[in-house]
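Subject: Re: docking follow-up (adenosine-5'-triphosphate)

Dear J.,

Thanks for your patience while I sorted out the input files. As discussed at Tuesday's group meeting, I've set up the holo structure prediction with adenosine-5'-triphosphate included as the bound ligand rather than trying to dock it afterwards. The sequence and the ligand SMILES I used are pasted below, so you can double-check that they match what you have on your end before we go further.
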Amino acid sequence: MIRFEAVSKVYPAYRDKPSVHALQAIDFAIPRGSITGVIGRSGAGKSSLVRLINGLEKPSSGRVVVDDSEISALAGRELRLAQRSIGMIFQHFNLLSSRTAADNIALPLEIAGWSRADIAVRVAELLELVGIADKYDRYPSELSGGQKQRIGIARALATRPNVLLSDEATSALDPQTTRAILDLLANINRELGVTIVLITHEMSVVRQLAKEVAVIDGGQVVERGHVAEIFTHPRHPVTQAFLSEVIGDSAPVSLASRLSPQPVAGGQAVLRVQVRGTEAGDTVVARLSRELSHDVALLSARIDEIGGQHMGSLILGIPGGEAAARQALAYLSRHDILVERLGYVA
Ligand SMILES: Nc1ncnc2c1ncn2[C@@H]1O[C@H](COP(=O)(O)OP(=O)(O)OP(=O)(O)O)[C@@H](O)[C@H]1O
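The structure tokens for the complex came back this morning:
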């Protein structure tokens, strides 16, 4: 369990730079054994939050507790011991280029004072765990990004930590490699019970791996909860913006370029309808056609399923002039379906 209790972090003024309130009033808990996503835009405070968990920074006020130990109050040898139970992986892997894969993984064990024989056994186990046993004698420059991250993961797990912090660990990888690394992290969580904190600016990463998510903005947690719930009912504008990236609810370019802000004689009003929840998009189209007593054109649709819930958006063309458009808007709003008018097309 990781707990933030009324945590704030202020970086003091330095020369001509003003002080920065990087985190304010952070109060939340990450359950033991969970995979929790922490998502935020650049500068939101994500890295500051991570550095508080592993004790690299101290909070300006409040407490950070990791597995019953107040890491924010530790120093010296006690802090170093506590840090051994917190592994970390990074966007740019942070491997030593002069060491082989095996020797990179061995590094934290050497620092912890393990014997050479024990290190050899543990490194072999870890190479196997992350699926690159055949690369033990390769140098980082000879490996792909995905393989380097596997070494990063093995090194982070070497001292058998309870917590694994992932700071944008897949941001430098292509989508296919990202998926493979996220699958590996899911296995590690399942098999070893390691608590994973996933710092990211990509909702697709949260969606693929995390069960819980906290959205952070301006140094505050602005929304948090189960991933399926947040994805289907996002409340904060920042969450909504992250989601529209992953759902892609913008109109197709060919349609957007034809949109006119004024009604077009004999044309259609174009509406964007949000699909959230158990109701599938096609039911919305069918119900609306029945209500209007004429066909509704489906101009574009992006629907996904997350945690058994449909989510996405439909772009509909409503023929029949202003009266029909107003009737459609009223009907959808009456049924609590989020809708917005994008314009008109011929
Ligand atoms: N050591 C520091 N000294 C002064 N200000 C800092 C320091 N570290 C971070 N900040 C400031 O604190 C705020 C939060 O930064 P932080 O790095 O935690 O955000 P982030 O969400 O991780 O951003 P990014 O995704 O760009 O890394 C920013 O305004 C940043 O400029």
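A couple of observations from a first look. The mean pLDDT is 91. The chain is about 35% helix and 30% strand.

Let me know if you'd like me to rerun anything.

Best regards,
T.
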